[in-house]
Design brief:
Layout (H helix, E strand, L loop, with lengths): L2 H25 L31 H14 L1 H4 L17 H4 L4 H21 L1 E3 L2 E4 L8 H13 L4
Helix pairs in contact: 2-6, 5-6
Length: about 160
């Protein structure tokens, strides 16, 4: 077989594999569905997204977050955010921030972490056309997103 034929065959095989992975990833991607959750007892936050999670230290937010997480996130991230699923263990998401000694720098780091979490949840994670996490924008109000984050943070060290 001449070299040109081998190169063409390899190029076509690579293209076919890429298209297979691309279409398979989309065909079997998770689709976000709004969870059934009672947010009563949580302070209403309104339509404008806050820059900082207002629910840290709020026990009711942890309960709401656990409910939503186990309905919508546990399939990939593990039950009760204990990891072990096909997606990252989220309990260490704020670990670098927590290790910062300077109070102002730690606060600024947590603001960045809040922004990352919010954007990840709202817009999902898509890499090379493959949906690894569906977008939740329009399905989850900020009260629920922040409650899920507080729940995950409460699982640190477990």
């Amino acid at each position: 077989m001449p070299f040109a034929d081998i190169a063409l065959w390899l190029a076509l095989a690579t293209l076919a594999l890429f298209l297979f992975v691309l279409t398979t990833g989309r065909a079997f991607a998770e689709v976000a569905h709004a969870p059934a959750v009672d947010t009563s007892g949580l302070q209403a936050l309104g339509p404008e997204w806050l820059a900082e999670n207002p629910y840290r230290g709020n026990a009711r937010a942890v309960e709401v977050g656990r409910t939503v997480f186990n309905q919508s996130c546990a399939q990939c991230h593990g039950p009760d955010a204990t990891g072990g699923g096909s997606a990252p263990d989220l309990r260490r998401l704020d670990g670098y921030c927590r290790a910062i000694g300077d109070r102002k720098l730690r606060h600024d780091c947590m603001l960045d972490n809040d922004a990352f979490f919010k954007e990840s949840v709202l817009h999902g994670k898509v890499r090379v056309g493959v949906v690894h996490m569906p977008p939740w924008e329009g399905l989850l109000p900020q009260e629920v997103v922040w409650a899920v984050q507080v729940f995950i943070e409460s699982q640190r060290g477990k």
